[in-house]
Specification:
By secondary structure, the chain is α/β, with parallel strands linked by helices. A hairpin with a 2-residue loop joins strand 4 and strand 5. Strands 1, 2, 3, 4, 5, 6, 9, 10, 14 and 15 form a 10-stranded mixed beta sheet that branches. A 6-stranded parallel beta sheet has the order 18-17-16-19-20-21, sandwiched between helices. It has a 3-stranded antiparallel beta sheet with strand order 11-13-12. The two termini are 23 Å apart. The longest helix is centred in the first third of the chain and has 19 residues. It is 36% helix and 21% strand. Bound molecules: adenosine-5'-diphosphate and alpha-D-glucopyranose. Adenosine-5'-diphosphate binds next to helix 1, strand 16, strand 17 and helix 14.
């Protein structure tokens, strides 16, 4: 094998330590597969409150304790602790960057009381980005690649190209920046820019400035050596219009040649109906009848009557605009007249939480809702539902549709981002289809896709053959991880 690469993977969330969405799943699974392929990859993330020292056997690193780090005119102390991400085959080192005052809070980014971003998120992530660089300097570790993810890490790219441009340790290091969601940009007032330590000349349109404010996603885009996004379709969408680029479509367009879309994979050790320890009954494509046991358990969990003739449609999601729930809201009356049951697990925007809670109260035998974050219930919904609904307005990749395929739970999705790249319509392709796809973002088309799904469900033979096809699809990380490694290698060849 050629010389192994060394990679620092920087992410603000990593399963099982801290998670709000798919970024956390990706940030655990991808590094583990890259490690399995023989490379030295380590992860660094902030040490949030959920990251318990005892639970995760975290220890201090003496020489990385109380490092003074400047944000604006304040000097704060940051320490690095360490543990491992372990599965059967590998062990990946994880560094936790800690400062209790900044990170030890009840939620990662948002104050649960106000439902608004923590007011000092600028300090929290400027400090983290500076801390990551400081950690490498003190470790004396020279990674070939620093792989950044989303706005929380974008400043690192800008700092490396300015303040650390002549730092010998990073002379041969290349920076990859992955956009998991272009809607979250880390926008802060100009006063926050002054705390970054970046030279004043970078506060311009060609730099990190965005309509008079600082944009940390843009910092990553402007200064990384390579940009990636999490599906090929999303890579095209973000440069196509404001609906997808959220004001950065021009930047995405200019950076098109530096950008590649690589579809996320799924962690098949965690999401596998054959060995899943979080579901009542394991099953495979050769024992589909056993899936019914999970459906029974799911109905019982939500106090819904169990009836094999009524399909259960599952939703597991952040309750955010992105996910397309306003389409459901618009046609709720029609949807409630259909022959279906709906189970929803999610949390987020209050009006969506209320929408689903109220609906469940009104339609007790039809709708079950759990507001909150619950890993185990997410598995039960994947295993026990017949269909899975993701009518997203945009979806950079989406993981739940892939989990659903693996669990034989046919997805109903809108053709956007990774949903378009992973689900094929059963009506359009009766021999290849794995779900139901609608294109236009409209409630009418959603209802139409749901009706098509209900009709197909009545045809047991058709349905079961689609289930088997879906379950056999390979969306494991292996091929996508290899594509990331190719990206790294190509980049390192460039001078
Ligand atoms: P996004 O990252 O936009 O939220 P993804 O589909 O990529 O969407 O990933 C969402 C991840 O978060 C999945 O692993 C999903 O199961 C999980 N998830 C979302 N909401 C909840 C919840 N309320 N409880 C448990 N898991 C959830
Ligand atoms: C983001 C996107 C989601 C994607 C995930 C992981 O949260 O919203 O579509 O799957 O990141 O890349």
């Amino acid at each position: 094998m050629a010389k192994p690469l060394s990679i620092l993977f920087v992410s603000s969330e990593v399963v099982p330590f801290a998670k709000t969405g798919g970024l956390a799943d990706v940030s655990a699974a991808l590094p583990q597969v890259i490690r399995e392929l023989g490379h030295d990859i380590r992860i660094i993330m902030p040490k949030f409150a959920a990251v318990s020292d005892r639970k995760f056997k975290i220890h201090d690193i003496k020489r990385l304790t109380d490092m003074p780090i400047q944000i604006g005119d304040r000097t704060l102390l940051g320490s690095v602790k360490s543990s491992f991400l372990t599965n059967i085959k590998t062990k990946v080192q994880v560094y936790f960057f800690s400062n209790d005052e900044l990170y030890c809070r009840s939620d990662l980014y948002v104050d649960p009381n106000t439902k608004k971003a923590w007011p000092d998120n600028d300090d929290r992530f400027i400090f983290f980005c500076r801390g990551v660089i400081q950690t490498l300097l003190l470790l004396g570790w020279r990674p070939d690649i620093i792989h950044l993810n989303d706005w929380q890490t974008g400043l690192i790219a800008a700092l490396l190209k300015t303040e650390y441009a002549d730092e010998p340790l990073f002379k041969n290091t290349k920076v990859v920046f992955t956009v998991h969601n272009a809607a979250y940009q880390g926008i802060f007032p100009k006063a926050s820019f002054e705390k970054t330590g970046l030279p004043a000349k970078m506060f311009k349109q060609e730099g990190v400035e965005f309509h008079g404010e600082m944009n940390l996603l843009k910092a990553g885009l402007m200064y990384a050596d390579q940009i990636t996004t999490v599906s090929p379709t999303y890579a095209r969408e973000i440069r196509s219009s404001e609906d997808y680029g959220f004001g950065l479509e021009g930047v995405f367009k200019r950076k098109a040649r530096k950008t590649v879309g690589i579809l996320n994979g799924m962690d098949t050790a965690v999401w596998n109906p054959e060995i899943d320890s979080l579901i009542p009954q394991t099953y495979s494509h050769t024992s589909l009848e056993k899936k019914q046991e999970n459906k029974k358990a799911l109905c019982a969990r939500f106090k819904l009557p169990f009836d094999p003739r009524i399909p259960v449609i599952g939703i597991v999601s952040r309750l955010a605009d992105q996910k397309g729930f306003d389409l459901i809201k618009e046609k709720l009356v029609d949807i409630m007249k259909m022959n279906l049951q709906l189970v929803v697990l999610g949390s987020g925007e209050k009006h969506y939480e209320e929408l689903f809670t109220k609906t469940a109260k009104k339609f007790k035998k039809k709708v079950g809702v759990h507001i909150g974050f619950d890993e185990e219930l997410a598995h039960l919904i994947e295993a026990g539902s017949d269909m899975f609904l993701m009518p997203s307005k945009y979806e950079p990749c989406g993981l739940n549709q892939m989990y659903s395929l693996r669990y034989g739970t046919l997805p109903i999705v809108r053709a956007t981002g990774g949903l378009a790249d992973s689900v094929e319509d059963l009506d359009e392709k009766p021999k290849a289809g794995t779900g139901f796809v609608f294109t236009e973002y409209s409630a009418r088309d959603l209802v139409d896709a749901m009706q098509r799904a209900l009709k197909a469900y009545e045809d047991e033979k058709l349905w079961q053959s689609a289930m088997v096809r879906a379950m056999k699809k390979d969306y494991s990380w292996d091929s996508s991880a290899r594509r990331y490694i190719d990206v790294y290698k190509k980049l390192l060849k460039k001078k």
